Amino acid sequence: MENADIFSDAIRRLGQASKIAQIDPEVLERLKYPRASLQVSIPVRMDDGSLRVFEGYRVRYDDSRGPGKGGIRFHPQVSLDEVKALAFWMTCKCAVVGIPFGGAKGGVTVNPKELSRLELERLSRSFIRQIADFIGPETDVPAPDVYTNAMIMGWMMDEYSKLRRQRMPAVITGKPIPLGGSLGRDDATGRGAYYCIKELESRRNWQPSEMRVAVQGFGNAGQHVAQLLHKDGYKVVAVSDSQGAIYQPDGFDVPSLIYMKNESRRLKAVYCDGSVCESVHAEKISNAELLELDVDLLIPAALENQITAENAEHIKAPVIIEVANGPITSEADEILGRKGALIVPDILANAGGVTVSYFEWVQNKAGYYWSLEEVHEKLHTIMVREFGNVYELMTDEQTDMRTAAYALALRRIGAAISAHGTGSYFSSDEA
Q1: Total domains present in the chain
Q2: Catalytic residue among 69, 84, 93, 105
Q3: Starting at the edge strand that comes first in sequence, how are the strands of the sheet with 244-247 ordered?
Q4: Of 51, 70, 143, 385, which has the highest C-beta tally within 10 A?
């Protein structure tokens, strides 16, 4: 799917959900348009002395329920339409888990792998200088996303603080712990998805040892959800990164894969005892082939639009957990729905990250920091509660889980927008 279509595809999801949510039509009209969009040029002095100018974006989609919240990604395919779609999803995601944020997103069109560390820092700081008037602890709070990390967030927070002449850790979340980051943020996205899977496990009486899992995307989120499932006895039979996938019907030792990936930046089938690793047999397959494996649980944890109308008929997994943002197009959704697949949507499944980002923001503003156990306990409480709310709505309305999640989000966003008054209020003769 072209980037220009991503936003329209995202908005298309609202139709059926709005019927279930029974919200004022004005709410739906408001949500078709972002509150504000910013496009900037980012000049960077390269190590060889030359000047390169990169394009950057920040979209604040809706702030009816609180400041905008959403990551900043560095990726060659970043575009305004993509960022708008991601900001829309963030709006719904924050509403689904009931945290007091609206949705936002940002990005820079760049391949960060081509930059030196010094060039990456200059780019990060320059981007913040360009959008400084658009963000703020009470306005719009960025976070890490694809190819950005805690150190980059630390640079960005530092640059914003210099501009404001005061230390302002609450302007950005996902920071290093010594700079005001929260414990538990590193595995929050994967852990939130894991809590959703455990809720399904209890409802469907799964035996973990009998569950075969494929994980597309072995970055931060994919690694953590795979490791948590492996620890519980789930059989992780396939994983992939941007270079390809590996498959082993008997399952992998996930901690060994993670060790090798993080040490060598390569995904390799190994078994490690400490730092000594031995190769194990595995079949090399493509990312596309991984999606079509005969597994019990498929976890797309890479980029958007991985399952489309072209390959949806070939997807065999009966349960799909969307850890990536928008990995399934709306057309593919319909095909998978007809096949009876249960999809735990991204706006619920990967909401652990933004939830712990909210915890970080709260801790920054209070100047009081929580233990790792407290973070895990609070995240578990929210994810279990909202998974239950979505699952119950899905069952009551006899719809799919994505539609139920959007309906729940729309009800909460609609309540905030309607609290200011809509056409039905202003056209009434009553005071």
Answers
A1: 2
A2: 105
A3: 283-285, 244-247, 235-241, 212-216, 297-300, 319-321, 342-344
A4: 70
